[in-house]
Amino acid sequence: MELINKSFQSVLPTEVVFGKNIVKEELANKLKSLSIRSVLLVSDAGLKSTGIIDDIVENLTENEIKVVTFTEVNPNPETQAVHKGREIYIHGRCEAVVAVGGGSSIDAGKAISVSTVNEGDINNYGRGKRSIAGPIPPLFMIPTTAGTGSEVTNVAVISDPERNKKFVLASPYLYPTCAFIDPILTYSLPQKFIAATGMDALVHSIESYVNNRAQPISDALALEAIKMLRRNLPVSYADPSNEDAKAQVLLASTIAGLSFSMSGTALVHSMSHPVTAWFGVPHGLANAIILPYVIEFNLIANYEKYAEVAYLFDDSLRQLPSYQAAERLIDCLKEFSRKLNIPKDFSYLTIKVTKESIDNLTIDALNERGTFPNNPRKATKDEVSTLYQLLFPQAK
Question: What is the pTM of this model?
Answer without folding.
Answer: 0.93
